[in-house]
Amino acid sequence: MKKVISLVLVMCLIALFALTGCSSKNAETPKENSQQPSKEESKVEFPTKPITVIVSYAAGGGTDTGARILMPYVEKELGVEMVIANKPGGGGWVGWTELLNAKPDGYTIGYINSPNIFSGYLNPAYKRDATIEDFALIANHVVDYGAIAVRADDKRFETIDDLIEYAKNHEVTTTSTGVGSDDHIASLKLNDKLGTKFVAVHGKGAAYGKSGVLGGHIDAYFANVGEVTVPAKNGEVRVLAVMAPERSKFLPDVPTLEEKGYGKVYSWSARGLAAPKGVPEDRLNIIIDAFEKAINNSEQVEKMNKMGLDVKFMKGEEYYKFLKDDEAGIIGVKDLLGW
Amino acid sequence: MDVFTIIFEKILNLHTLLALLMGVVGGMIIGGLPGLSATMGVALLIPLTFGMDPVAGLVMLTAIYTAAVYGGSISAILVHTPGTPASAATALDGYKLTLKGEGMKALGVSTVSSVIGGFFSGLALLVLAPPLSLISLKFNAPEYFLIAIFGLTIIGSLVTESLIKGLAAGVLGLIAGLVGVDILTGYPRYTFGLSVLESGISLIPAMIGLFSLSQALMQAEELGSTNKKQVINELKGRVLPKWKEFKSIIPTIIRSSIIGIFVGILPGAGGDVASWVSLNEAKRFSKKPEKFGTGCIEGIAAPEAANNAVTGGALIPLLTLGIPGSSTTAVLLGGLIIQGLIPGRELFTTYANITYSVIIGFILANILMGVCGLLGARYFAKVTKVSKAILTPIIIVLCVVGSYAIRNNIVDVYLMVVFGVIGYFMRKTGFHPAPVVLALILGPIAENGFRQSIILSRGNMLSYFFSRPICIILMILIVLAVLSPIYMNKFKKANMQQD
Questions:
Q1: What are phi and psi of A285, to 5 degrees?
Q2: Residue pLDDT, tens place only, B164-207
Q3: Cis check: omega of the bond before A115, within 30 degrees of 0
Q4: Cβ contact (<8 Å) for A89 and B199?
Q5: Domain map of chain A by residue range?
Q6: CB of B271 within 8 A of CB of B316?
Q7: B138 vs A204: CB contact, 8 Å cut-off?
Q8: From A306, which residue of chain B is nearest by alpha-carbon distance?
Q9: 8 Å CB contact of B43 and A87
Q10: Is B186 left (phi over 0), alpha (psi -120 to 50) or beta?
Q11: How far apart are CA A189 and CA B218, in angstroms?
C-alpha cells in the first residue's frame, strides 16, 4: 500500500512541476499578463515593459546570433529590454505557432525565416492553416543570397557554364539542408528552367553538406554567400555563381546566373521580424521605427558583415512583396517537390 | 621563441585565468545538472564573450565545453542521473560502484580518465589538427551508416543478462528514432500533428526519463516498502585510484582517448557515440568482460576518457575547416566568428597567437578541471549520504526543469515522464534502458546515412560501398563484432572442458 502511495505522491510532484513549468513560461511571455487593459491607445505609451522576441531556432544558431547582435540596438531605441526566447523545433514552426498564438499587443514579436516558413505550410503533409498573411510584418534584417560552388580542385567545373552543361546530361548531386530549404528550391528552379539534373542530398544541418563537398562526396555546393565566402578565401571551394539580382559585395568577382544568361534565377534565405496580426497600428509603427534605426545602425551593420551576412532593411509593402516573391518561387516548383 | 612569450602573456594574465576558472567551475555545474548540456552552457555564455578579449572569451567557452562533459558524469555516477548524453554510459558501472559505497573511487577514476582524455585531445588539436581534419573529410554518408551499424552491434553485448531483452529494448529505441520529419522526403512521421515532434523525440528528455526519472521512481518505491533499505555505507577511501588500479586502466584510457578523438573529428557523431563505443571496446579487450556492469573501474574509465577526448577532437574540424564536429562546437562557431576569427588556414597563420593561446588554454582547462574534481570529490560524494526521501524529490525536480530547459517546451517534460514510466517498467521486468538510448542516438544516423548513400551511389549501392576503403574496413569490423562473441563462447567452452 505504502508503495502505491509513494508512487502516487511522486507522480503528483511531477505534475506539480510540470504545471509550474507551464506557468513560469507564461509569466515570461507577457501575452498572458492581461491585467492592464491596453485601451489607452490614443496616447500611445508603448512599450512600458520588456518585449519578448521569439527565435524559432536553438540558441547559438545563425538566427539566434543575429538576433543577439541586433537587440541591444533596438533596446536603445525602445528603452525597454528585449528578451530573446528560443523555441526551436518543427523547422521553425514551433516558434511561429507560438508567435501567432501570442496576444497581439506588441509585447511578443519574433523572427521569421524564409523560405522555411513557406515550406512549412506549402507542404500539404504538415496540414497547417497559418500562412504569411497571418503575420503583421515589422522589418527585414538579413538577406543571404544563394551561391553555387564546387571543390577548389574540381577540374570538371571551372565555370558555371561547365557545371550546367554537364548537369543537363548527367545527374549531379547537390547539397541541401532539407526538403524545401532554399538550397533545395534553388536546385529545383534550375532543373525546372534549364533542364538540368541536379539531385539534392538532404542532410541535417549545414555541416553535412560542407564536409560532403570538401571531401569530394557531393558534386556541387548549393549554399549561401555567407557560407561560401570564407571557404572561397581559404582556397577550399571555387564559387561559380551567385543567385542574386546583382553581384555580392563579399564576392565581387563571381558572376550572377542572370548575367551569364540563365535568366532571373534568384534564391535567398532571409530573416526579419513579425508580430501576430492584430497589433494596434500605432504600436506596430513604434516597433517598426525602432527596428529601422537599429538595423540601419552602421555599427550593427558592420558586426553583421563581419559574420558574412548582408543587412538589408525592408518594411511595409516592399518587405511584403519580397516575401510573396519567395513564396511564388516555391509554388512554381511545387510539382517538382511533389506537393 | 617570440610566439611562446606572446602566448604565455595572453594566457597568464588575471583576466584569462579568471575566465578559465569560471569556465571550468561553471561548466562542471551546468554539466552536472540534467538537461543543462554543454551546448546550452556555451550558447548562454556567448553573448558574455562579445565584450571580452578573444583569448579569454574563447578559453572560457572551450573550458565550459570540456568541464560540462566531465560534470555530467559526476551526477551519473552518484545519483544515476547523467547530466549530458555523453555521460549516460558512465552511469552503468559508476552508479554500481556508488551503491557499493565506493562513489569516491568512481569519481577519482572518472576525473583521472577525463583529464587524460581531454589532455590527449588537446595535444592532438595542437599538433595534428590539419592531417586529422583531412581524415574527417573522408567520411560521409556510407561511413556514417556503417559506424552507426557498428555502434548498434554493441546492444548485443551491452546487457549481459538476456540478449533478447537487450535487442528488444534496442528496437524500442529504433522505433522512437523514427519519429519526426523524414529528412530526405520532408514527410512528418508519427508526429500526431504536433509541431514539436517534427524534429524528432529529443534525446535529452528521453534519456533523463529513462535513466533518472525511472531511477527516482524505483527509489520512491523502495522508500515506501522497507525501512531497512541499505543506506550507502560509509564513504570509504581515497579519491585518487591506487597505483595498481591506475596501471590496470591505462590501456583502456589510451584506447578510449584515441576512439574519442577520432569520433570527435567526425561531424556526424559526438560524445554520446564515443562513450558507448569505447565502453564496448574496453569490454571486448578486457580479460574479465563479465565484470562490466557490476561496478568495475574500467567501465568508468572507458567512456570518461572518450567523452572528454571528443571535445578536443571536435574542435579540430571546427578550427581548420569551419565544420563543427558536434552540436556544442556548432554553437562555438558563432562565438569564434563574433570575435572576428574565421575558421580556416588564417587561424593558424595570421591569428596563430590567438589560436594557439586558446588551444593551450583548453589544455589548461582540462588540468584545472581535474584539480577541481579531485578537491571537490569528497564533497560531491556526500550527496549519496543524503536521505533518499530528500534526494529523490530533488532529482525529480531537476528532471522536470532539465527537460523543459532544453527547448523551453512543456512537451519535452511530458516526453520525459512517458520515458520515465517506460523505463521504470523496463527495469522492473529485467530490461535495461541503455539500449533504448543507444538506439535512439544511432538509429537516425544509420537511416539518414543509408538513404543518403542510395542517392550518392546513383543506384549502384554495392560497388559504391566496396569502392570506399574506409567502408570496407568498417564492414570487416562489423562482421568481427558480430561473430566474435560466438567464437569467444566456443573458445571458452572448449577451455572449460579441458580444465
A1: -65, -35
A2: 888 999 999 999 999 998 988 888 999 888 888 888 898 889 99
A3: yes
A4: yes
A5: 51-143+269-331, 145-243
A6: no
A7: no
A8: B340
A9: no
A10: left
A11: 57
Size of interface A-B (CB pairs under 8 A): 195
Neighbouring CB atoms inside 10 A of B53's CB total: 16
Query: What CA–CA distance (Å, rounded) separates B269 from B449?
Result: 12
Which residue in B144, B195, B342, B387 has the most chain A C-beta atoms within 10 A of its own C-beta, making it the best mutation to test that interface? Answer: B195
Give every CB contact of residue B233 below 8 A, 6+ residues apart in sequence: B101
> What span, in angstroms and rounded, lies between the C-alpha atoms of B270 and B254?
18
| Cell numbers given for A35 | 491585467
Contacts of B314 (CB under 8 A, 6+ apart): B264, B265, B270, B324, B325, B326, B328, B329
pLDDT tens for each residue of B313-367: 999 999 988 888 777 888 888 788 778 787 887 888 888 888 999 999 999 999 9
Among the partner-chain residues A119, A207, A235, the one whose CB lies closest to the CB of B324 is A207
3-state DSSP helix/strand/coil percent for chain A, to nearest 5?
50, 20, 30
Specify the CATH class of A51-143+269-331 in words.
alpha beta
Q: Say if the Cβ atoms of B321 and A236 lie within 8 Å.
A: yes
Q: Which three cell numbers stand for residue B425?
A: 517498467
| CB within 8 Å of A287: residues ≥ 6 apart | A51, A78, A106, A109, A138, A275, A279
Same fold: A51-143+269-331 with A145-243: yes
Residue with cell 523505463: B423
Q: Model pTM?
A: 0.85
**Strand-strand pairing, A221-224 and A108-114:** unpaired
Nearest to B417 among A14, A61, A308 (CB): A14
Q: CA B68, CA B376: separation in Å to the nearest integer?
A: 15
CATH no. for A145-243:
3.40.190.10
CA–CA dist A49, A83 (Å, integer): 11
Distance of CA B20 to the CA centre of its chain: 22
CB B61 within 8 A of CB B367: no
CA nearest neighbour of B157 among B307, B281, B15, B21: B281
Grid cell in block for residue B210: 529513462
Q: Cell match 540596438: residue?
A: A73
C-alpha pair distances (Å), B343 with each of A307, B43, B154, B322, B418: 12, 18, 36, 5, 42
Radius of gyration of chain B (CA): 22
Report the distance separating Cα B98 and Cα B55, nearest Å: 39
Contact at CB, B140 and A212, closer than 8 angstroms: yes
Report ipTM for this prediction. Answer: 0.83
Per-residue pLDDT of chain A (339 residues; tens, 9 = 90+): 455 556 555 555 555 455 444 444 444 444 444 444 444 445 678 999 999 999 998 877 788 888 988 999 999 999 999 999 988 888 899 999 999 999 999 999 999 999 999 999 999 988 899 999 999 999 999 999 999 999 999 999 999 999 999 999 999 999 998 899 999 999 999 999 999 999 999 988 778 889 999 999 999 999 999 889 888 988 999 999 999 999 999 999 999 999 999 999 999 999 999 999 999 999 999 999 999 999 999 999 998 988 788 999 999 999 999 999 999 999 999 999 988
